[in-house]
Each structure stands twice: as C-alpha cells, then as structure tokens.
Amino acid sequence: MTQRTDLFEQTADGRLRMNFHTGQWRAWQSTARIVAVLAGTQGGKTCFGPPWLYREIQRAGPGDYMVVAPTFPLLSLKALPEFLRLFKRRLRLGEYTGSPVRKFTFSADGAARTFGFVPETETCVYFGHAQDPDSLESATAKRVWCDEAGQKKFRLGSFHALQRRLSIHEGRMLITTTPYDLGWLKQQIWDPWHAGDTSIEVVRFDSTENPAFPVAEFERARRSLPAWKFDLFYRAIFTRPAGLIYDCFDEGAHLCPRYPIGDKWRRFLGLDFGGVNTVGVFFAQEPGTGRLYAYREYRAGGRTAREHARHLLAGEPGIPYCVGGSKSEGQWRDEFTAAGLPVREPEISDVEVGITRVYGAIKRDEVMVFSDLAGLRAELGSYSRVLDERGEPTKDIEDKSDYHHLDAVRYILGYLKPDIVAGTIGTARPGTPGRSIVSEAPEGVFADGWR
C-alpha cells in the first residue's frame, strides 16, 4: 500500500511546505477567476481547498471569505475538518465558532502573521450551505471555496448567488468536487471552459493521481462497477448516469441559441406554484411545424399572485395559454385568474403519465430549448430516479420536490401533448365541446391568432 504523505508540513523555520501531486499543482498554478478541480474519489480535492484559500487570503488582504458545501452535515464531515486542520491546529490563526453564525475569526496574532501587520479590518471565513440560495445573499466575499458543488443539493441558484457575492472584489472561486450528473456544473463550468472561456480553468484527474490511492482499488472499481459510475466517481469524467429520467434530451440536438420569436407564435406557460418559489416555463409554437421552443423561465418568491402575474406577463405579446399546479391547488389558480392570468387545471394527476408525455415530445424532436435557460437545463441534466443497492433505477424520483422547472414543463406539455399538431393547440378539448379558456375569454385578451 502507498505511504500517505501529508499535504502540508511546517519546516524548521516555520514556513509552510506543500506536498502537491501533479493534479493539485496544476490547480495551484491556475490564474483563472474560477478554478474547478474535478477529481475521482479520494483524489485530493477537499484537502486542496484550505491551502488555496489561505494563499488567496494572503493575496487579497483583510476582509470576509466563504466556504460553502451542499449541506451543513456534509460541511461538518469534510470541508470544515480540513479547514480547521490547517487554519486552527497547524497555523493557529484564530478561533472557530458554530453559533449563532458559523465562522472562523482571525486573531490579531494570526492576522499579523498572515498579512505582516495587524489590520483594522477583521478577517473572517464564513461557512454556508448551498441548499438555500437566499442564505448566501447577505455576504460580500473576497474569495469563495465551494466543496462538492457537483452534488444535487448544491443549487444553481447558490452558484449564481456566490458569483454576486464576489462581484464587488472581482473575487476568485475554487470548486472542488466529483461530477455526479450532467447538471449545472457541466453546463456552467465544463462546457464554457471547453469552448474556450479563459475566466474558467478545469483541472481534472483520476483518483490515482493521488499517490496514496491504491492502484489495486482503482482497478477493482473498474472491473466491478458500471462504466458510467466508474467514469464519474473514479475518473471525474462527465457521463450520463443511470436513472436519468430525460435521457433522451440531447444538448446537441435539442438546444438552440436564442433568436427573436415572432409575436404571432402561439405562447404557452406551465406554472408550478409555491410560497417560497413560483416557477414558470414559457413555450412558443413554431408556425407550420408545431414545434415548441422553451424561450423563457421565471422563478420568484415573496410575491402575491397579482405580483407574480404582472411579472409573468411583462413583455409577452398577449396572455399565454397557461396550465399549472396540481389538481388540489385550485385556490392558487383562482387567485392567478383573478389577477388577470387564467390558469387551467392539469388534465392528468399522475406524475409518471406526465413524464411519459414530456419524454415522448423530446424524443420525437418536438421540443427545443433556448441555450440560455440555465435553470431548466440544469434540471434536465440531473432529474433522476433513486438507485437501489445494485445501482439499478427504482420508481422513486430523487429529491422530487426540488424540480420546479420540470414540474412546470410537465403541467403544460402533459396538457398539450394530445393536441400538439400545428393549428390545433388551444381548440376545444375532448369532452368539453366548444369550451376552452381561449373561447370563453373576452375579445382581445389572448394574442392574435388564437381564435
């Protein structure tokens, strides 16, 4: 078995010596604004975070910094112990407090040894979790370290919130993670870097880049695991995981760049109601082909139904044909309708039937998505079944309540699919002769071409 070498050690004169392996050294040398270390399990990701952050604190000076993990339990299990190992026990820079706010505060002596003087400004490292993007909005940070950002509970909204927190100082971000799916990490980090975005650098390496990782264990995993799982978790290679529900969605075939949509195109809206977040996905139907283009997404909280309706309709050429909520959410629909946005009840209540209709529309190339719809794309790349102990998909949906964009898509496409033929959407439904939201609305409410 390979002998473990500590990542950092202090020399006789008190200096800190780093024992990086090749992959860590590449990340250490990067000058990119966002550095993403994508590595296999036990490849040396999390332990790289504290020395990187300490160097950046020395460079950026006194102020506030952040360490963010998907959840507080995961933070306490991995990133926080590694951080304290260097900042508290090895370098004795200050003290950590867990309540009422999780933070590490530099002492006067720790600041003096870090900066060469005792600054008037206090230096703190705050610890947060990424399940709730709103919890990250109040800070202004000079640098951020995001650990295990590839996990599902690390929200796209949290990534965007952290970018805003760094904007004043044009601060750098370090991401250390194993890839878990094809969600926002691939779309917002890997894909732009691969396309030539110089503000991002991805450093990827196998588990065996760490000299302490046994080669025999790596080969055992190669022999015994499904190829997708081995590539994700031991090689940090993005691949389609088992259980991905909309595995038919092909970014090469179903994404397109934004372009102007004609005002005469029929518009549709799927709505997912919520007190914390109401989410909407807008579609426009291409004349002649009947193909639907997802062209806009909406997500907001803390608003009344009337306020939501006003923001949803802003910029639209007319009132879109809207379907939303579960069958039990009639009160929401009534309030939106009273606010000027009629919302129809979904035709079906069975989630699996709705998923099947959406899946069929995607597979038949009847749906396209504008490439700048980051929320919808992130969910399409991570919406998955729970896997059993053999790695086989079950009927259960993992973190089902978190996928508001896809719920909205399911409501509207689940309703429209029987009628997705050019020239027929918006006409009377079977069993309700001559009646629909369109036919019963006052003249002029809907955009031209509906009647």
Descriptive overview:
- By secondary structure, the protein is an alpha/beta fold.
- It folds into two domains: 18-235, Rossmann fold (3-Layer(aba) Sandwich), CATH 3.40.50.300; 251-440, 2-Layer Sandwich (Nucleotidyltransferase, domain 5).
- It contains 15 helices and 19 strands.
- It has helices at residues 22-29, 49-60, 72-90, 108-115, 156-166, 184-194, 215-224, 227-235, 251-254, 305-313, 330-338, 351-363, 374-380, 404-416, 437-440, and strands at residues 8-10, 16-18, 34-39, 64-69, 94-97, 103-106, 124-129, 143-147, 172-177, 200-205, 255-256, 266-272, 278-285, 292-300, 321-324, 343-344, 367-370, 385-387, 393-397.
- The strands form four sheets. Strands 5-6-7-4-8-9-3-10 form an eight-stranded mixed beta sheet, sandwiched between helices. A seven-stranded mixed beta sheet has the order 11-17-14-13-12-15-16. A two-stranded antiparallel sheet has the order 1-2.
- Helix 6 (184-194) crosses helix 13 and helix 10 crosses helix 11.
- It is globular and about 75 Å long.
- The termini are far apart.
- The CATH architecture of the largest domain would be 3-Layer(aba) Sandwich
The count of domains is 2
**Can you identify the CATH superfamily of the largest domain?**
P-loop containing nucleotide triphosphate hydrolases
- Which percent range fits the helix content? 25-40%
In terms of DSSP E residues, the strand content is 15-25%
Cα shape:
globular
Please mark out the parts with pLDDT under 50 across 5 or more consecutive residues, or reply none: 419-451
What is Rg?
25 Å
Strand line-up across the major sheet? 5-6-7-4-8-9-3-10
Number of strands: 19
Q: Please identify the oligomeric state.
A: single chain
- What's the CATH C level of the largest domain? Alpha Beta
CATH topology value of the largest domain: Rossmann fold
Structural class: alpha/beta
